[in-house]
Request: fold
Amino acid sequence: MELNTDIVTGPPRAAATVIMLRDGSGDAQGLQVFLIKRHAKSNVLGGAFVFPGGKVDKLDAELNTGLHIDQPLADLHAALNEPDIDHATAAGLYIAAVREVFEESGILFADGVTHAHAERATRMLREGQAFNKVLASMALRLQTTCLAPWSRWITPESPSVMNRRFDTRFFVAAAPAGQVATHDNFEATESIWLQPRAALELHRDGLFELAPPQIMTLAHLSRFASVQAALADARSRLPPVIQPHPIDIDGTRVICYPGDAEHPLKARAMPGPTRLRYRNKLFEPMDGFEGLFAD
Reply:
């Protein structure tokens, strides 16, 4: 992963991503997370493994929420804990999250959807129909109650791995039964279910590119033994706002997180290390790999 040294001015673009979880079985017991590999030619994290997600579209705010949302907009707004946005904007973030995970993985969080329903909706989307029209045509209501806000990441003006800024809301959700997650072979070229620690080990060994938000999120998720435990944690707290603070120490890029001595915010926002350094084209804790799992 190449380091970006450019300064990016202007406000960050609103985005949403879904951390999809399942409980493994057999030799792969334990919490697993779904990751997709972005196309190598993508202008955002090309070649890296990420959670499905993307930018909020203006049409996301135009969906008939009375027909296609399963809970009051006030509840969505309250769960995000963002008093500076209105109910409609909050709903648009959830809609964007559901739309993006559907477009990139084929998983559709909507009432009564089976794998066959999801495949039909995917065909309609690829035929050029807008997501809102697909929902209307199939009379689907989105299951926003399945999504629990996890965190909010705001790219600094000195992004370490991109040349643009995003204000991304991360949601966690259990993969729905009866549907099969895969990649779209357009924006993503590979997909895989992995235990969080296993993904981090592949990154450590140079076999798996991960950006810092994914590294820190996987390290956090590695503390949970099951989907139920991770969802319970998400629903027991408000999502923290994480604004990475990059600095250079002796020519080495270091990204500091809330709670670090060099970060403007002294209260920790998540478990794990409070800083990552860039070395050998990888981001790693200052005190080695096991530092990702320290309390």
User: Anything to note?
Assistant: Residues 13-293 form a domain with the Nucleoside Triphosphate Pyrophosphohydrolase fold (CATH 3.90.79.10).
